[in-house]
Amino acid sequence: MLEDIFDGYPHDKIDAALADTVQQYPLEIKLFKYLMKGMRTDTWKTRYENYEELEQYCYYVAGTGGIMTVPIAGISQEFHQSLALRGRVYLPQDGLREFRLIDK
Q: Which domain, by its residues, includes 12?
C-alpha cells in the first residue's frame, strides 16, 4: 500500500492525505519503511543485545520521524545537516560521570 500511496494511488481518505503530502514535499519512501520496521519490532523485541541494535531501533522509531518533518517544516537541507555539527551531547552529564565517561 505504501508504494501505491507514493505512486499517487491512495486506497482511502487517510491514504489520500499522505499521498497529497508526499506529492508536495520531497519525502523518501525508505523513511516510512524504516518507521514501520521499527514499529513492527516493538511487537516482538523486548531487549537489545548491544548499543548498535538500540541505536538502529531508535533511528527507525524516532529518527525517521524527525527527518521526515524537515522538508514539511521548511527547514533547508543545509541547516538540517549543520545541526549534526553543533557539538550537542544529549546524554545527561551525571550519567556520564557515574560511568566515568567524558564527552568530547
A: 2-98
∠ Cα 19 23 29 (to 5°): 70
Q: Is residue 55 part of a domain?
A: yes
Name the pTM for this structure: 0.75
Average pLDDT score over residue span 66-94:
81
What is the rounded distance in angstroms from the CA atom of residue 53 to the CA atom of residue 37? 13
Non-local CB neighbours of 1 within 8 Å, separated by 6+ positions: 11, 15
Q: Given pLDDT bands bounded at 50, 70 and 90, which one contains residue 101?
A: confident
Alpha-helix residue ranges (DSSP H) falling in the chain:
2-6, 13-24, 29-41, 51-58, 64-72, 77-83, 93-98
